[in-house]
Amino acid sequence: MNHLALKQEVKKYWNTAACGTEFINLKKFSKEYFEAIEEFRYNTEPEIFAFAQFTRFYGKRILEVGVGAGTDFLQWIRAGALAYGIDLTDEAIAHVQHRLMLYDLEAKEIRIGDAEAVPYEANMFDLVYSWGVIHHSPNTVQALGELIRVAKPGGTIKLMIYNRNSLFALYQYLTHALLKGKPFRSFKKVLYHHQESLGTKAFTFREIKKILATQPVTIKQLTAPATKHDLLYYKAKPFQWFAYAVACIVGWHRCGWFMMIELEKNYK
Ligand SMILES: C[S@@+](CC[C@H](N)C(=O)[O-])C[C@H]1O[C@@H](n2cnc3c(N)ncnc32)[C@H](O)[C@@H]1O
């Protein structure tokens, strides 16, 4: 599938339901609806707080790329950041606009925009943040370059992308390849077809380091600790214990589904 057609597929997928809203059966855009989204998100992905460090960006100009339903975006504003946000879809932007109105909060700007062509000038932001987004975009490397371009020299880029060498990726392989009698299907292919929108990618540490070596950045953090998804939080206890033991054996800080990357943009 060509780049444009794949981008349309990605857009269609995330326009059907904004990220993180699919499990919530409450009146759309009501206060209960948004609070259930927020509770579910931070219960299942508690690592976001320690990684994002929302409260360290008071008064700073930040850009979130791929805001989804806007749960993290609200935290930036609550923490006093001057927050700009973009997403590929109308559905995401509508979610954020309703949330801002409901809580009487103000963003500097929230608009449709593509991570592969970020609609801002170079060197504008103290922080560029993107959680779980650019691996869905057909040209992830281009999107990464854009995140870096719009950060100020000395500024920070924090992003999460999926880790192919993770327990969660292994479960996807077992479910969609091995147990279907297709052991030779690669992890890449399984994730491309079965992980959220079509074309989803996941990377290894080595691949990411190689890509980053071509960019004007210094790596401050590159880690992928086991997440609740890797530890099978939705399964019975014996499965969870087994996953926990495997994570300890293979390396707790590198076997997680969320590869969390913090970069500093170089001055030269
Ligand atoms: C898994 S959701 C993550 C949303 C949010 N960051 C979160 O953690 O809940 C992926 C989001 O990325 C957006 N997205 C995908 N490709 C994009 C692109 N090229 N530019 C901007 N947003 C994109 C989708 O519309 C969707 O809202």
Give me the secondary-structure topology:
Layout lengths: L2 H14 L14 H14 L2 H6 L8 E5 L5 H8 L3 E6 L2 H13 L6 E4 L12 E7 L8 H11 E12 L4 H10 L10 H8 L10 H8 L4 E7 L13 H14 L7 E8 L3
Parallel strand pairs: 1-2, 1-4, 2-3, 4-5
Antiparallel strand pairs: 5-7, 6-7
Helix pairs in contact: 7-8
Bound molecules: S-adenosylmethionine.
Residue windows where pLDDT falls under 50 for at least 5 positions: none
SS element count, helices:
10
- The pLDDT mean sits at 96
Q: Which homologous superfamily in CATH is the superfamily?
A: Vaccinia Virus protein VP39
Shape-level CATH architecture? 3-Layer(aba) Sandwich
Q: CATH fold name, please?
A: Rossmann fold
Strand content: 15-25%
Residue share in helix: 25-40%
The N- and C-terminal alpha carbons lie at a distance of: 37 Å
Order of helices and strands: HHHEHEHEEHEHHHEHE
Q: In CATH, what is the class?
A: Alpha Beta
* Sequence of strands across the biggest β-sheet: 3-2-1-4-5-7-6
CA-atom Rg in angstroms: 18 Å
Structural class: alpha/beta
Task: Count up the domains.
Answer: 1
Can you tell me the overall shape? globular
Count the strands?
A: 7
Unique bound compounds: S-adenosylmethionine
Main sheet: strands, sense, barrel = 7 strands, mixed
What does this structure look like?
With 268 residues, the chain is an alpha/beta fold. The chain has one domain: 3-Layer(aba) Sandwich (Rossmann fold). Helices cover 40% and strands 18% of the residues. It is built from ten helices and seven strands. It has helices spanning 3-16, 31-44, 47-52, 71-78, 90-102, 140-150, 167-176, 187-194, 205-212, 237-250; strands at 61-65, 82-87, 109-112, 125-131, 151-162, 217-223, 258-265. Helix 7 packs across helix 8 (187-194). The mean pLDDT is 96. Residues 10, 14, 19-20, 65-66, 68-69, 86-89, 92, 114-116, 131-133, 136-137, 143 line the site of S-adenosylmethionine (SAM).
